[in-house]
Amino acid sequence: MRRIMVLNAKGGSGKTTLATNLAAYYASSGKDVILADFDPQGSSLGWLEARGIGRPRIHGMAVADDGLKGMRKADVMIMDSPAAVHGKELTALLRRTETVLIPVLPSPIDMRAVAKFIQEVKDSAPVSGKKVKIALVANRAREVTNIYWQLEAFLGTLKVPFLSHLRDSMNYIRAAERGVGIHEMAPYATATDRAQWKPIISWLNSKRSQP
């Protein structure tokens, strides 16, 4: 089973946005998908509750309460991690996956926080032992702002694959409200967003993203 985790110790970085859109993408591509929510807030499962019956099915798991006990077989498992994970808890999470996406917001506070967190992730046994691959995604980016270009330059210094930036778009809000993903919305309305997702999907579907 393909295992992909969205991870950042800082809250509000857009982990659930990435996790739910990945789950929706794989489900709409015909894959059998598990969406495992490690966050006690249960935001990913809340998104799943809003999902219409006619949509491709995604199996939700409240991992924060029950762990992965009784997990069914599937093609892909997308994991939405909690905030404030460090030390042993971080290592335990990383042992559950093979690929990690780290969303980063365009703000000085977030950039400083993620630099320290990425170093902790790189120093962890699963990553330093090359059992887990990691990559970065810039989230809620606005190209017309100076901080956007600062973020682009900053991400390039971290020596971790930087895949793409996702714009600050109302499409993500609409998708969250309806329990769908960008790839399940009208192509004419989401063409820009789909184009920004292409490098992410391409990397995840390549051997470069797997140990």
Count of helical stretches: 9
Q: Any guess at the CATH architecture?
A: 3-Layer(aba) Sandwich
Largest sheet: 7 strands, parallel
Name the helix and strand elements from N-terminus to C-terminus, one letter apiece: EHEHEHEHEHHEHEHH
CATH topology: Rossmann fold
Which key phrases capture this entry?
211 residues; 7-stranded parallel sheet; alpha/beta; globular; 43% helix; Rossmann fold
Any overview of this molecule?
With 211 residues, this protein is an alpha/beta fold. It has a single domain, classed as Rossmann fold. It is 43% helix and 19% strand. It is built from nine helices and seven strands. It has a seven-stranded parallel β-sheet, with helices on both faces. The protein is globular and about 45 Å long. The two termini are 14 Å apart. The model has no long low-confidence stretch (mean pLDDT 90).
